[in-house]
Amino acid sequence: MSGFMPVLWKEWVLFRGKIVDITLAALTGPLLYLAAFGWGLGGALTVDGGPYMTFVMPGIIAMNGMTQGFSVIANDINMARIYQKTFETVMISPISMPVFTVARITANVLRCLYSAALIVAASFLFRAGLRIDWYFILLLLLNCAVFSTMGFIAGLLIDSHADMAKTSNFVITPMSFLCGTFFPLDRFPLILQKIIGLLPLTQTVKGMRDGGVLPPLALLAWLALLLPAAILLCKRAE
Fold it and tell me: Residue 216 CA to chain centroid, in angstroms?
C-alpha cells in the first residue's frame, strides 16, 4: 500500500488549512434543520409515540453524512480533472490507482466522520436522545464510505461542474427527502416503499432508528459494488 499515507497526509494538510470553513459548512445546514424541526415542530409532533426530535435526529445525521460524503469528493475530483488539471500529477506519480482510490475515499470518510461528530455534539443541545454505541458508529462509517465512493465515481464520470450540480439535484436531493429522513416510509405506497428501501440512505436511517443486522449488510453490499467500480474507473483514467 505504498502511497496510501502520503495521500492521507496531503488531505490532512488541506483539511487543517480550511478547518474553520469546513466546520462552519458542516454545521450550517444541519443546525438549521435542528432549529426548524427541534424548536419549530419538535414540540408539536410525535412519531410512534416518541418526540419528533428523537425520530428526526438519526435522519439528519445520516443525511449530513450523505451530502458531505458525496459532494466534497465529487467536486474535488471533478475540479482536479476538468479545471485545475492536477489529476494528471496523480497519474504520473508512483502511486497506483487502486491505492490512490482507497486512500482518497478514506480521507473523505474521515472528513465525513468529523462533520458527523459535530452534529452529534450539537444534538445534545436539542436533547435529541441519541444513543451512541458501536452499532451507530459502524452505520455512520459505512454510510460515509458508500457515499464517498459514489462521489468519487461521479467525479470521474461527469465532465462539467454544471452537470455535477445537476447530478446532485437529481440523486442526492431526492434521497434527502424520500429515504425516511423526516417522516416514516409507511406514508408512501407499498411499491415505492420497496424501491426506496433499497437505497443506502434508507438503510442507514432505518438502522440508526431500529437496529438490526440487515442495514449494515446492505451498506456493505453497496460498498462491495461501488468500490471496485471506482478503482476500475480510476485505472481507466490513468
Answer: 15
CA distance 54 to 70: 25
**Mean pLDDT score across all residues of the chain:** 84
Indicate the pTM of the whole model: 0.88
Cell of 171: 440523486
Q: Is 95 helix (H, G, I), strand (E, B) or coil?
A: coil
**Residue closest to 34 by CA, chosen among 69, 70, 59:** 59
With residues binned 3-state (H G I as helix, E B as strand, rest as coil), the percentages for the chain, rounded to 5, are: 80, 0, 20
> Looking at residue 39, what is its pLDDT?
63
What distance in Å separates the CA atoms of residue 196 and residue 16, rounded to the nearest whole number? 37
The residue extents of the domains of the chain are: 4-237
204 Cβ contact partners less than 8 Å away, ≥ 6 residues apart: 62, 65, 66, 139, 140, 142, 143, 215, 219
The residue whose grid cell reads 436511517 is: 205
Residues 6+ apart with CB under 8 A from 41: 52
Residues 99-150: tens digit of each pLDDT? 889 999 999 999 999 988 888 887 777 666 677 889 999 999 999 999 999 9
